[in-house]
Structure formats: C-alpha cells, structure tokens
Amino acid sequence: MNVLTRTVLGRLGGMLLTLILASMVIYSAVLLTGDPIAALAGGAKPTPELVEQIRAEYHLDDPVWSRYWQWLTGAIQGDFGRSFVYKTPVVSLVGPRFGITLQLVLLTVLLILVFGVGSGILAATRGRVVDRTIAAMTSLGMALPTFVVAILLIWVFAKSLGWFPVYGEGEGVWDRLWHLVLPAISLAVLFIAYVSRVTRGSLVAQLHSEHVDTARVRGIPRRRIFGVHVFRNASPQILAIAGTTIAGLFAASAIAEVAFGLGGIGSLLVQAAARADLPVVQIVSLLLVTIFVVLNAVADLISAIIDPSSVGGGRTS
Amino acid sequence: MTAPVLEVERLDIVAPGPEGPRRLVTDTTLSVARGEAVGLVGESGSGKTLTLRAVAGLLPDDFTTQGRIRIDGQDLGGMTATALRALRARRIGMVFQTPRAHLNPLRTIGDFMTEALVHVAGERPDVAATRARHLLDEVGITDPDRRMRQYPAELSGGLLQRVMIAATLAMDPDILLADEITTALDVTTQEEVMAVLADLRAHRDLSLLFVTHDLALAGTVCDRVNVMQRGRILETLRAGSMRRDAREEYTKVLMSASLDEAPPLEPATESPRPLVTIEHLRKSYQVRGATGRRETLVAVDDLSIEMASGGSLGIVGESGSGKSTTARMLLGLERPDRGTITVDGQDWSRPARGSADRRVRAKIAQMVFQDPYQSLDRRQTVRQCLAEAVRVHRPRQSAEVVDGRVRELMRQVRLDEGLAARRPRALSGGQRQRVAIARALAADPELLVLDEAVSALDVTTQVEILTLLDTIRRETGVALLMITHDLTVIRRLCDEVVVMRHGRIEERGTAAQILDAPTAEYTRMLLESIPREGWTPRRRLGRTRSQPTTTRSSAMIPE
Amino acid sequence: MSVAQIANGTVPAAARRVARRDPTFLVAVIAFGVISVVALAGPWLAPYDPNELYVGPLNGAPSLEHPFGTDDLGRDILSRVLVGAAASVFAPAVVVVLSTILGVGLALAAAWFGGWVSGGIARLVDVIFAIPGLVIAVLAVTIFGKGLAAPVIALAIAYIPIIARLTRTAAARELAKPYIAALRVQGVSSPAICFRHLVPAMIPIVAAQMAVGFGYAMLDLAAISFLGLGQQPPSPDWGSMIAAGQAGILAGAPEQSVFPAILVVITVLAVGIIGARVTDWAEEKER
C-alpha cells in the first residue's frame, strides 16, 4: 500500500505540474497575438474607452507573470473574466452550457463502453467469422468521423424517416435524452470502433499468453479463464485507452454540438474562436484541458490498482 | 493396471504455412506405463514439445493432427470438449519451461494453488487452502502461509517451478508432462527440482513424460528415453544401458556432447606478459525489489583477476554471480564503481571516450555474445556485417581488399561462402554464431571474450563451436576469456578457471584443480549437480514433513 | 535499393503477389492513388469553375451535365469536390510530415543527450499531450485567424507526443539490443551506429505511424473545416462543403454534403487499410 500511496501522490504532483504548464501555454496565447488589446477586443476596432477598459480588466500594465497569476487564481475561484463579444461574464456563458455537454458525453460514454468493449469481446472470443465481420465493421467505423455520421443520421433518421428531432436541446428529461440520441451516436461511432479494436487486441494477447495455457491444461472452466485470467489482465490496457478516449470526448463533442445545433461548451468554444473572443476561448480551453488531464489521471490510477506490477513502471510501450 | 497411462500412436502434426502445410511431427509412437518415467529428447525443432502439447491439448487452433492419443485407454479423438477438459484436468498435470510466464502475474500463489481444487473439483476454499499448504510443503517450500499470499513476481524461478509442480499435484494426476522444466534454471536449482520430482515419483504412483534437450539429464531421471530428430523418433533406449545400446550416430553425438570425458587442458607455457589485470573491481545497481522498494544490488564485489596473453580463462558462475557484468565492464559496456582494469598496459577502468579510443580498444579486445540472433543486426547480410567490422580498422581500403578479408574471415570460421548474401534470419543458430565470431576476429584481437557464447545453442552445435574456438585459438594465439554457467564447456576450452558467486570469487585455479579436486564447498556443489551416469539428484533444502499428502481424496472422483 | 528492384523486375512480381494474397490492400492502394492524382490534377479535371455561381439550378439533382448535382448557390458539386481534394489531401500530409520531423527530432535529441534535456522534452511532450488537438487548433485559429494554415501547424504540434513517444520507446528498445553493444565493442563510431543501424531500424515503425496519423489528420482537419474554422468560403474543401450542405439535406438535396462525405470516408478507409498493413510489416521486421 505504501508503494501505491507514493504512486498516487507522484501522479497527482505530475498532473498538477502538467496542468499549470498547460495553463501557461493557453494564457500565452494573449502574448502571441502581438497586440493583446486588439485580440481581446475581438476584432472590433477598439475605441479609447474600450482600450482603457481592457487595460484595467486585464491589468495590462502589470508584468506578464503577475497577469497570468491573476488570471489563473481568478479562474480557480470562478472568476472567468468577461466576454468581449457577448459583453457578459464568461461564467454565465459556460455554466448552463456545461450541463448539455456533460449529458451528451455521458450518453456517448455509455454507447462506447457497451458497444466498443462488447464488440471487442465478441471479436476475440466468438470465432473467425464473427472476428472478420467485426474487423470489417471497425475498419469502416474508424473512417466515419462525427460530422459524416451526423449528416447521414440527419438525412436518414431525422429528415427521411422523421424519427428523431434534428436540432436543439429539448425540454424535460426524456425530451432532452431524445434530442441527444443522434448526436451521441454520431460522436460515438469512431470511438466505438477504436475501443473495440483495442479491446480485441489486448484480449487476444492474453488469450495467447502462456499463463492462459496453464489454466487450460488444468481444466479451469472457460468462463472463469475468460473472466479471471483474460479479461482482468487485459483490463488495465483497455481502461487506459478508454480513459483517454472518454477524456477527449469533452473536446470532440464540439463537432456533434455544432452539427446538431446543441448549445454546449464545445459549440461555445467554436463560436468564440470564429469571433476571436479570446477570453472565452482561453477559459473553455482551460476547462477542457483540466477535464482531460484529470480523467486521464483517474484512468491511470484505476489501472495501477488493478495491476500493481505496473506501479511506477509506467506503460509507455 | 497394466494399460499404459499414455499412448501416442502414429501421431502426425501439420502446421499451416505461407508455402503450404508443413509436417512438424511424423509418425510418432510412444507410451508411458503406470509409474514409468519416459524421456523425450531432442534439439530445437525436433518436435518434442509439439508432441507434448498435442497430448495436453495446447496446439494452436489451425494445426491439424492425425493418429491417436489415449489416456488411461480413453481415445481423446472421440471425446466431447467438456469430457476432454475434465479428463485433462484430472489425469494430466503439465509443468512448463518458464514458470514465470506460465503463472498469472496478477494472482497470488494461493489463488493459483487452489484454483483447480475450487473451480474444477468443487472443494471448499478453506479445505483447498489447507491442501495447498500441504502440497507446497511436500515440494519443499518452507513457510507456505506466507508464500500463498505472495505474487509470482516475488518468488525466484526455482521456487516458482516448485509451485507449478505442487499445483499440478493438487488434482492427483496420473501423469506429469514436463516440458524443459529445468532449462531456465541454474544447475543447482535444477538439481533441487529434479530431486523433488524423484521424491514425488517414489511416493506417488506418478508417471512422467519428460521433454528435454539434455540427454544426460533424461538418462538420470527416466526409465526409457526416446531420441527425437526432425519430427521423428529415431530410437527408444533403456536409460540404464543407453550408452551401450545406442545405435544411431545422432544419439552418440548427443551423448558425447553432454557427457564429457576429455581431459582438462594443461596450462600453456607460462607467458611472460600479463594481458588483463583487474583489481578490486566493484559494481552495484539500484534495483526495484519485488515489493517496489529500492535496493542496492552488488553485482561484482572486490574482484581481482589476472590473465596472461594467449591464455584461456574461464569465469564460471550461476545467474546473478556477476560474471557477465565483469565481462561488460572489461569491454567498457558498463562503468565500474571502483577498481582498475588494465589491458595490454593501458588503463581501461572507464568506458572508452570517443570513437578513436573505442577503435584502439576494439583492436585489442572483442566479444561474442550469448544470442547470435540478437547480437547481429537483422537487416545486414553476412557480407555487410563483416565488411563493416573490417572497415572500422581499415577505413580507406578498396572494396576488393575488404572483400578478400571478409572471405578470409568466413574461411577462418568454416562458413560457406555461399552464405555471404544471407541475413541472420536465414541462417541456423550455429551459422549465426560463426558470423559473430568472424566479426570479432575481424580486428585481429588479442583477447576474445565469450559471454555464454554457446549456451543458447543446441548441443551438437555447441560441440562444433567449441571445437572451432579451440582451433582458432591454436591458429591465431588469441587469448580466450570464457564466461559461462556450464562447467563442461570449461573443460573443453580453458586452462584456468575462476568460480564466482554473488559477485565474489569462491575459488580459482587450473582447470584440472577445479574440475577434479575442488576445495571450495560451492564448487563441489556445482560439480555434483551436473547430471551424469549414476547421478541421483539430492535435495539440499529442508523439508518439514516427509509423508506425501493424501492421494486421490474423495473430492477427486468425478461424479 | 528500390531502383535496383525495379530494374530487376521484382516490383511487378511483388505487386502480383500482393494482389493475389491481399486484394483489399491493392484496392486501398489504387483508391488512394486515384485520390492523390485527383488532388494534384483537380483544377484540370474539373468540368466547371468550382466557384462560379449558377452554372446549374439551385440544389440541382445529379444529371448528365452535373453528375454530382449542384449546390445551394448553383455551383457544380463535382468540380468543387475535385478542386477541394487538394486542400483535403495535402493539408493532412503537411501535418504528418511536420509532426514526424518535430517528433522524431525531439525523440532523437532526448535519446542522444539524455539527462535534463530528455527530462525537459518528456515534460514538454506531456504538456502538449494534455491539450486536445482540437483545442490547440481552436486556440491557433483564435490567434492567427481562420484558414488552413493555423490548424495545420496546430495539429502538427498536437501530434508530436504520439510520434515522439513512439520513436523514443522504439529507439530505447533498439538501443538495448545486444547488437548495438556488439557494434560498440567493434569500435564502430556513435554516428555510424545511429545512422547505419538505429535510423534504418526506426523507419518501418515511423512509416506505419505516419500512415495511421495521416488518417487522423485528415479527419481532424475536415472536422475543423466543418466547424467553419478551416478552409474559408468560397474555396472548396470537403469538410466545409459537408457543413454548407447541411441545410440542403433538410431541403431534400443531400448531394452537396453526401458526395464529399463519401470521399472523406473512402480516403480515410484506404489510408487506414494501408496503415494497418504497414504496421503489420513493421512488426514483421521486428521479429
């Protein structure tokens, strides 16, 4: 346990350092623009009053480090600054939209885990025909990006068949869920294929491993061999990939949100980028990076608990 | 009771391949009677392990077999998958070459020991645990309670192999299939495991099918021995009289290779010039122990060796003795913590700095590694490989001169010139090691360091390479430093021997002294644990109880 | 070497063997070849000016004059798809080449210098990995404005961690092999070991990663164009065409979205199959 505790603390430290460095990268975008006032003004020709407002709000007369520190501590305390396009506090833009993104991602995660891991297990265990079929499907799935699936779904299910609503978020729990089905599918397809392949690959590696030979020759029932010796040993690897995938969904959901007209943080990010609304872009980026890093670290830790031998060694290969 | 436990009748094993199916085992027939131990001996590719895996049901799915396999008179061919699994679970126990790979790294020893009892025989977990502790005790594992809680990574290879054996005994099998079970172990550990096996056979009515490449070892533990070559059984011999009865030339070669009577070499006339002087050498590593704690491992401790030019010194030791680390420090592949290395009057205590220094040293000392396939760049042909080695020392030579030298080197190691365009993959193990030796000779070195240079090779190939090295030594006068775990290798090639253990020197002397009249206890133990005619493995570790655990308990009888 | 093979006539023989053994691979290579030719020669192949308005009816169905139909502004979809191929195919190629140069460079620098350089590079790679590619691209667009340049550079940076980590691991594994030690003992110089032995050993692995990375880059760039942050109108590009055609789908004219979508899928599928085979080949070489 001592070793595990030390690993947890070590990973936590590494995670925080990565986050701080990433936040510096995001913040430094202000400097890269050359003229921060023009960038912060969002493309509009700044009036002298606006220049003054920007200077005051962003403490532009302070040194860079001090400005960065104020930005970061403000963000941690929930002060996300003010959008220059919407002229409102960023927090009021992000808050309500985050819920939609979260719901979309959760539904997508469910689809990925059920169909991705499920089809991976089938491919690894149900013989050559099933394996070939699923391999062909995942090959196709890996070439089906969210926006392609989205327009196909809109065309077939929303327009031609009329089974699902096309745009918007809907009202109430069930209607909301109903509105999120097509976006979640469009977001999930590529990742289902990816997770399915990784699952199959690590299961097959375990199925061919020598310790499974031992279990076979000892006559251990097949169900137990699969559960205890194959799936459990393969799970750290599956989990690592699934974790990274899920962590990336919060960013990738932007495409589904835009395609289906959902007002989540992804579509907010895209709109803000299109209008060069840097304060919004920075805060949403920081939020997405934090989610990504934290979820990755969580997946990492769960893997370490399942497979104590991976502790400290890392799994780069 | 007279029916054989295992019968294999006219077994063929065919593997699919890109160039059509290949027949790997042909027309193999053998039987093992109740209580009998039968050896299946051959070199790599002889089909011995495949035959064993066919019995255990572990062939790859796309392999096809013909012929019959019967266990206790029941033909495996006509059985359902479930019946087959039950039969194998209860009648057969199998032990593998690499115990570490064959145990699930994420399960404790206790889980492994009780798994079959609980999930096949339906025992209660606490009953199974009690029995598991008895079985661990029976194979001589002390403190079974603690071992049951440990993970495979925390146990040594020898212990794991005994755990494997104990676990197979849990189901009271009729026959034990042993696949090269001691090949990955040190010679003293091998003796331990073989002694455990001999004890078990004495106390239980246990049959044994023993697959090995070591004819001498098979001869000491088995009643009968089948010699296999290229997928066929050449002859079957009674172990006790196999030296007299052997008719096949191949069998005789296998015997002469493993049981060596050649008299030890006498030291060459005293050379005036010391070539290598090593003084107070020390090397330690920071390692992560099984529990994850950092520990200091002293690989080599206060080691001093002297070697004359043109001499031939053997450094013998088991794994972890520090013998290879010493060789690597000598050649600048590792940096010593302390101590000095002097070679040919130059200070080599630190690894070479820069290319020029490296070239100077390369001219004096060269090395041949254990696994020739790994030590050759798989993308280079034999000619490219040798030409590169030649050009290091003759950078401005014309292509013809280099080519001539390459041909000369190939002749020197008795390598057919037609092989010059081949890559390592298309060469046999012996041919690869000849290329590695030729490459080492390209620099005309004064010292050739051989790091386990024959231990990865088949027995017959070992003999060829050792003979070649002996010839080269006579022809060129190069000094040989032989790093090996195998005392029989020393006998053939070295006039002086150093025995190492845990990084320190146990004993040193001439080959004759060490091999025929050893003074150190450890050297004697090493020598005694080499299988030979009339050898009985002895157990050196204590054991608390000598009774065998219950045989065929009621839980074992299938409903 | 490859020139010699062509001279010996072994390449056609090899191609015949591939065709017999692996027809899927052959189809993928041909598909990718055709798309590459289209990407190069698109402007000459296009029957109409891709940006000319009202060459046909608005949202016209496929016809003899307009095999892929016409879009919501009456432009010829076939011409737009052909001309748009260039941006859709070459931009990801640039991403892959740039990220490979940067990633392999960083990995080799880390392997070569070791110590704090290696540590610093590892940290840098960790930080880049922590920011999803789309976020880097969006940041770049916010700063440098819309268009393909910013996303291409952003993705090239975003892909560094994948290639750098892979190369670093593979190089470390290769350097640990006994044949490298054997070369040292022979007195072969470090640059010679690096360029004659280490680099050739890396090529199959890096090539496989490039093929796989091309597919991802294509998807990511098309997504960025789809979001309206990449290629700007009126210049055609598959991703932005799909987005622009979304309104047409609801109006019953899906052609503007569907044809470029099919091409994206076919290209990524072909590259995916090629990438998988190259990976198999690299693993084969490993053995």
Automatic annotation (TrEMBL), chain A:
InterPro entries tied to this protein: BPD_transp_1_N, MetI-like, MetI-like_sf
Subcellular locations according to the entry: Cell membrane
GO terms classed as biological process: transmembrane transport
CDD domains in the record: TM_PBP2
Annotated transmembrane regions: 12-32, 100-122, 134-157, 177-195, 238-260, 280-299
Coiled-coil stretches: none
Membrane topology according to the record: Multi-pass membrane protein
Entry GO CC: plasma membrane
Domain of life: Bacteria
Residue ranges of domain ABC transmembrane type-1 in the record: 98-299
Keywords for this protein: Cell membrane, Membrane, Transmembrane, Transmembrane helix, Transport
PROSITE patterns linked: ABC_TM1
Family designation: Belongs to the binding-protein-dependent transport system permease family.
Protein name: ABC transporter permease subunit
Species this chain originates from: Agromyces kandeliae
Taxonomic placement: Bacteria, Bacillati, Actinomycetota, Actinomycetes, Micrococcales
UniProtKB/TrEMBL annotation, chain B:
A Pfam family: ABC_tran
Region named Disordered: 537-559
GO biological process, one term: transmembrane transport
Annotated Low complexity bias: 544-559
SUPFAM superfamilies linked: P-loop containing nucleoside triphosphate hydrolases
GO molecular function, one term: ATP hydrolysis activity
Keyword ATP-binding: yes
Top-rank lineage group of the source organism: Bacteria
Keywords: ATP-binding, Nucleotide-binding, Transport
All residue ranges annotated as the ABC transporter domain in the record: 8-255, 276-527
InterPro entries referenced in this protein's UniProt entry, alphabetically: AAA+_ATPase, ABC_transp_ATP-bind, ABC_transporter-like_ATP-bd, ABC_transporter-like_CS, P-loop_NTPase
Family to which this protein belongs: Belongs to the ABC transporter superfamily.
Protein name in the entry: Nickel ABC transporter ATP-binding protein NikE
Organism of this sequence: Agromyces kandeliae
TrEMBL record, chain C:
Domain ABC transmembrane type-1 as annotated: residue spans: 85-275
Keyword field: Cell membrane, Membrane, Transmembrane, Transmembrane helix, Transport
Pfam family for this entry, one: BPD_transp_1
One CC-aspect GO term: plasma membrane
Membrane disposition: Multi-pass membrane protein
Transmembrane annotation, as ranges: 25-46, 89-112, 124-143, 149-167, 205-229, 258-278
Superkingdom of the source species: Bacteria
Main localization category: membrane
Subcellular locations according to the entry: Cell membrane
Record GO terms (molecular function): dipeptide transmembrane transporter activity
Alphabetical list of InterPro entries matching this protein: BP-dependent_transpt_permease (IPR050366), MetI-like (IPR000515), MetI-like_sf (IPR035906), OppC_N (IPR025966)
Recorded family membership: Belongs to the binding-protein-dependent transport system permease family.
PANTHER family reported for this sequence: GLUTATHIONE TRANSPORT SYSTEM PERMEASE PROTEIN GSID, OLIGOPEPTIDE TRANSPORT SYSTEM PERMEASE PROTEIN APPC
Biological role: Part of the ABC transporter complex GsiABCD involved in glutathione import. Probably responsible for the translocation of the substrate across the membrane.
Protein name stated in the entry: Glutathione transport system permease protein GsiD
